[in-house]
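Onboarding guide, step 5: your first structure request.
Type a short instruction followed by the sequence, for example:

Predict the 3D structure of this protein.
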Amino acid sequence: MVQYVTDTSKWETWQRDYRLGLILIMPPDMVASRINPLRAKYDPRTYAYCPAHITLSDPLGLEITPDRDAEVRRILGSVQPFSLYFDKPHASRERGGVAYPIRPREPIDALRTTLHQASVFTRPPCYTRTIPPHMTLSEFVTIEESWRIMDEIKDTAPSGSFLCDRVEFIVPDRDMHFQRVKSYALGKG
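The system replies with structure tokens like these:
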């Protein structure tokens, strides 16, 4: 069903945790086409790994099989679609990075809780569950670089909203570039 990489010897240690993939909220094309150019410009390295997204799940601990796929589809089908908003990018004065805060947080947290009931999640909860929902524009930059980026995009950064009515199962290829494998519709249970 899914083509998983078997030789991860060239991957960094942290990357191996993601070999079986994860499930993300990826904005629709009309939003992604406005966010991805910023991500490509200000963080080409991580953009190459994955385009604009909101982290939703922990890395999978088990391979997706037809039975597990059906379970995930059933679980996600019980969650109704919801609207998400992104207004202005934010940079911290404590650590580097620029990201769009995503609101409201509550439906994403509820979706995470529901999704992690699936049997493919066998590991202890990942730290990313505690991080407020966001779409990263740039990470692994200094605080000073973050504020330079903020100054550069303050008048032109897009804002908007979108309906979260599906999530994406993604799996890395041998170069650690995530590929969409499957979309799961929300509310189709």
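Each response can be followed by summary notes, for example: The chain has one domain: 13-185.
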